[in-house]
Amino acid sequence: MSVEFVSPPESAAAMAAAATAATRVDEGPWCGIMDCMRPLVIGKIALAFSVLVCGSALAQCATTWGPGDGIPGVGPDLWGSSVYAITNWDADGPGPLPSKVVVAGDFLVAGSALANRIAAWDPSTGTWSALGAGLDGPVWALTTLPNGDLIAGGAFTTAGGVSAAYVARWNGNAWSALGAGTNQLVLALTTLPNGDVLAGGQFTMAGGISANGIARWNGSAWSALGAGVTGQWSPAVHCLTTLANGDVIAGGSFDTAGAVSASGVARWDGSSWSAVGRSQWWNIR
Question: Is the dihedral of CA 31, 43, 135, 191 positive or negative?
Fold first, then answer.
């Protein structure tokens, strides 16, 4: 058995030709041996395990792709791919479908599934699946809605081929935008008891209105949380959580929330900001 690495050219046609060449076997009478092929094409590297067989007769059966064994986890960055967010996802909310684990980050493959930056893992079967066409940039945050829909935020501008500025919604079948989205990165998400979504990040606008680092989506429109967060150097909200009473705790790179001095962490009670004691460090991630 031999391992062959092929670096295909940039064009799609050349890529396909190189991938085909990397997995072609001059089989002669050995057509059945194709079952042991395990080709895998990832990014710009075509990797094929080829069996050396007798070539007494060329091209007696068509070149085919065999099922691959996949990879353990996500890939395919040769230097290691990254997962930035994980959540438990029940696609039908209170319905009978079992829940899955959704992972998101900066990767293109999950197991043996092509999955652009987001994928679902089924604990009962151990299998991975893509969420449509995925996202065109890294995903930094995930949250779920009471009805089972999934919200993703990150550094992307399209979701499933649909324009979606840094935040998008997956309903189990298709991706959609949350209005006009934000004007910069979404780094954190949380869901309120009523199903509204809070997004935090390094943005200054959401849905075309001023919203410094944090904003609320009510299912149809964005709104600001007071004056948001501010700071001297690239203020941003990096993490969010919702308390049992509906209040929200935000952490990040800021020294003011609303008009209140709040070093790195602050609390929103639905109408105003307040400090949460004193944090030792200004930047919380």
Answer: positive
Inter-residue contact 180 to 162 (CB < 8 Å): no
HSE-up of 131 (CA within 13 Å, CB side)? 31
Q: What is the pTM of this model?
A: 0.75
Same domain as 97, residue 27: no
Exposure pattern of 189-200 as b/e (b: 16+ CB <10 Å)? bbbbeeeebbbb
Give the torsion sign (CA, 132, 135, 139, 143): negative
* pLDDT 10s digits, 31-50: 333 333 333 444 433 333 33
Cβ(181)–Cβ(206) below 8 Å:
yes
At 86 the three-state DSSP class reads strand
Instruction: Tell me how far apart the alpha carbons of residues 64 and 51 are, in angstroms, rounded to a whole number.
Output: 14
Residues 81, 40, single domain; the answer is no
Query: Which residues, in sequence order, are bridge partners of residue 74?
Result: 110
Q: What is the CATH number of the domain that holds 136?
A: 2.130.10.10
